[in-house]
Automatic annotation (TrEMBL):
<protein>
    <submittedName>
        <fullName>3-methyl-2-oxobutanoate dehydrogenase subunit alpha</fullName>
        <ecNumber>1.2.4.4</ecNumber>
    </submittedName>
</protein>
<dbReference type="GO" id="GO:0003863">
    <property type="term" value="F:branched-chain 2-oxo acid dehydrogenase activity"/>
</dbReference>
<feature type="domain" description="Dehydrogenase E1 component">
    <location>
        <begin position="44"/>
        <end position="315"/>
    </location>
</feature>
<dbReference type="GO" id="GO:0009083">
    <property type="term" value="P:branched-chain amino acid catabolic process"/>
</dbReference>
<dbReference type="InterPro" id="IPR029061">
    <property type="entry name" value="THDP-binding"/>
</dbReference>
<dbReference type="GO" id="GO:0000287">
    <property type="term" value="F:magnesium ion binding"/>
</dbReference>
<dbReference type="InterPro" id="IPR017596">
    <property type="entry name" value="PdhA/BkdA"/>
</dbReference>
<keyword id="KW-0560">Oxidoreductase</keyword>
<dbReference type="InterPro" id="IPR050771">
    <property type="entry name" value="Alpha-ketoacid_DH_E1_comp"/>
</dbReference>
<keyword id="KW-0786">Thiamine pyrophosphate</keyword>
<dbReference type="Pfam" id="PF00676">
    <property type="entry name" value="E1_dh"/>
</dbReference>
<dbReference type="InterPro" id="IPR001017">
    <property type="entry name" value="DH_E1"/>
</dbReference>
């Protein structure tokens, strides 16, 4: 029997922030910044490695090695902070921009490369790391996350699932269904919306008339929290709290991480067509990486040797990614036909012949 939320839900307009853009701790006292020094440095390392690999993915796409890429530049804190506090057995349901989440989960960058190159098994090996393949049909992954959370609930596990989605996805019918189902059955699913202000060229003001995306939680009978998505410690803290609530059987949470996509929507997009330099400058001043570096400096945790170690690790990962992409086996185009359809119709056979002839011409 479904248990409905008995307590009235209110949502703060102001995002939770633990570290300001100047790197100074804020007055926020509801959440802790108290993590071991090693974890604090590791969060920095993961953000820097994410940005560096993001650059490498863009370069590889520009060189014609990848079909497409969805850069996450600017969203490193939102992604690393959210993923870092989870257990390896918590299932992740990404949209398509979650590079930082994959890296924290230990998914090899080469596997992400295979997904964007379109080679066989592209993305499928994510599942060994409890991460669903990327979801390009916007918002559909939220329903999968709720279904998996219901399974965990019935199996009596204390794992949680996380649906990663964007501001644009919140307008999809699937997302309404997922949130509603999760609320009614109090499933251990966290909805993590990265509000990066844009859905391709549609600004977030055109997505909803609600006070904020987090305020939608009120209607679903679950807690809604706005968090500064460019503050890695705030994202970590808010997600930790929501995961604990879900593990204890107290149901889902809708988190809105307020952040910004500094790059294009994809490598096929030109954002200068729909947004302006002052807006970009505003968000560049909120860049999560220099902010967190300043925080570590203030805490006496940053050192040149940390910076050097992180830079070396990032360079090595970039090289490994290039090797993985360049060394990937050629795609067997026949799989387009044999792995999708049970029966090959005459039309499909004609398409297969046409494709082979085309490839023979361009080889
Ligand atoms: C169901 C569906 N509708 C439309 C699209 C085309 N589309 C691809 S990405 C995108 C924008 C999604 O924006 P958001 O959820 O904010 O995520 P972001 O790209 O900003 O990370 C749209 C409309 C799609 N892939 N799937
Ligand atoms: Mg968006």
């Amino acid at each position: 029997m479904a248990r409905n939320c008995q307590t009235p839900v209110t949502v703060d307009r102001e995002p939770v922030q633990l570290v300001g853009p100047d790197g100074i701790p804020t007055a926020e006292e509801r959440y802790s910044r108290d993590l071991p020094a090693q974890t604090l440095c590791w969060l920095y390392e993961m953000m820097v490695v994410t940005r560096e690999l993001d650059n490498e993915f863009v370069n590889l796409q520009r060189q014609g090695e990848l079909a497409l890429f969805t850069p996450c530049r600017g969203q490193e804190a939102a992604q690393v902070g959210a993923a870092a506090c989870l257990r390896a057995t918590d299932w992740l349901f990404p949209q398509y921009r979650e590079l930082g989440v994959y890296l924290v989960r230990g998914i090899p960058p080469g596997d992400v490369g295979a997904a964007w190159r379109g080679t066989w098994h592209g993305g499928l090996e994510f599942t060994t790391k409890c991460c669903a393949p990327m979801s390009v049909p916007v918002g559909t992954q939220t329903l999968h996350a709720v279904g998996a959370a219901m399974a965990a609930q019935r199996l009596g596990e204390d794992s949680v699932t996380v649906a990663f989605l964007g501001d644009g996805a919140t307008s999809e019918g699937d997302v309404h269904e997922a949130l509603n189902l999760a609320g009614v059955f109090r499933v251990p699913c966290l909805f993590y919306v990265q509000n990066n202000q844009w859905a391709i060229s549609t600004p977030v003001r055109n997505q909803t008339a609600a006070v904020s995306l987090a305020h939608k939680a009120i209607a679903y009978g679950m807690p809604g929290i706005r968090v500064d998505g460019n503050d890695v410690l705030a994202c970590y803290a808010v997600m930790t709290e929501a995961a604990a609530r879900a593990r204890a059987g107290n149901g889902p949470t809708l988190i809105e991480a307020v952040t910004y996509r500094l790059g294009p929507h994809t490598t096929a997009d030109d954002p200068t067509r729909y947004r302006n330099q002052p807006e970009l400058d505003h968000w560049l001043a909120q860049d999560p990486i220099p902010r967190y570096r300043r925080y570590l400096q203030g805490q006496g945790l940053w050192s040149q040797s940390l910076e050097d170690r992180v830079a070396a690790r990032a360079a090595q990962q970039r090289a490994d990614l290039r090797d993985a992409v360049f060394g990937a086996p050629d795609i067997d185009v026949d799989e387009l036909f044999t792995a999708v359809y049970a029966d090959i119709t005459p039309e499909l056979e004609a398409q297969r012949r046409q494709l082979r002839a085309e490839l023979a011409r361009t080889d």
